[in-house]
Design brief:
100 residues; mainly alpha; 2 domains; two-stranded antiparallel sheet; 3 helices; 2 strands; 4% strand
């Protein structure tokens, strides 16, 4: 998985560079999250309590609004669909002459 992850992140980095513009800085990456025994504990590692950067107010893990769903489909197809959406169908995404 590590080699696949490195390859995918290399491609995502190239896509991010292609999507950057005068008013937009893009970063795309895929990270493997170590499983903590159950989904909620795993998400708590990724979305911990902390202090908001802008107003310095504290927030708790419960403040995050994360929805999950089990996918019984090919993960590669889901990833391809998400990359297509976020890298090519956003207002700042690059276009070819003629709108392609």
């Amino acid at each position: 998985m590590t080699n696949d992850l490195a390859r995918i992140n290399g491609q995502l980095e190239l896509l991010a560079m292609a999507n950057c513009g005068p008013n937009t800085e893009c970063t795309f990456s895929l990270q493997e999250i170590p499983y903590q025994g159950d989904l909620l504990k795993t998400l708590e590692v990724v979305f911990p309590a902390g202090i908001r950067y802008m107003d310095k107010k504290p927030y708790s893990t419960e403040d995050w609004q994360v929805a999950t769903q089990r996918l019984d489909v090919d993960a590669a197809l889901v990833l391809k669909s998400k990359i297509n959406k976020w890298c090519f169908h956003m207002p700042y995404s690059p276009t070819l002459p003629g709108g392609g």
